[in-house]
Amino acid sequence: MPLTDNNEVLMVKQYRYPYSEVVLEIPAGKKDIGEEPFTTGKRELKEETGATAKEYIDLGQLYPSPGYCGEIIWMYGAKGLEFGELNPDEDEFLEVEKVPLEKAVEMILSGEIKDAKTQAAILKIKLLIDSGKF
Fold first, then answer.
1. Is 90 a catalytic residue?
2. What is the model's pTM?
3. What is the distance between the alpha carbons of residues 25 and 43, in angstroms, rounded to a whole number?
4. pLDDT by 10s per residue, the chain, length 134
5. Residue in 21, 82, 85, 90 annotated catalytic
6. Strands, DSSP E only, in 17-129?
7. What CA–CA distance (Å, rounded) separates 59 from 61?
8. Which end of the chain is more exposed for a tag (fewer CB within 10 A), N or C?
9. 92 by DSSP, 3-state: which?
């Protein structure tokens, strides 16, 4: 979950076929075989937003559907962002958007942000910031 120096969440809008809608979410992607989750997170941040970070924090794992599949989502917070060129996958059509952290929390509570990993990461970062740990 990338956070700018102005406390904005760097998010991407992309069409998600299972829901037939554009979804606002944090950058994410599939881990390559043998790739470490942290390496995946840094790669996806760069590919989808063009950003790299000076500092990362481990936000833990998320089991999105434990009764249905064995997927694990590793989440990281990122700050001290520096921007370069986007490099999305060939089949990705993304729009990058900066959302103030407080507004992102409101969007979660109002149901505008529906993605589970995005909700969890944003709320974790908010709590960590409020407690002085990020």
1. yes
2. 0.92
3. 16
4. 999 999 999 999 999 999 999 999 999 999 999 999 999 999 999 999 999 999 999 999 999 999 999 999 999 999 999 998 776 666 667 899 999 999 999 999 999 999 999 999 999 999 999 999 99
5. 90
6. 21-25, 51-62, 73-83, 95-100
7. 7
8. C
9. coil
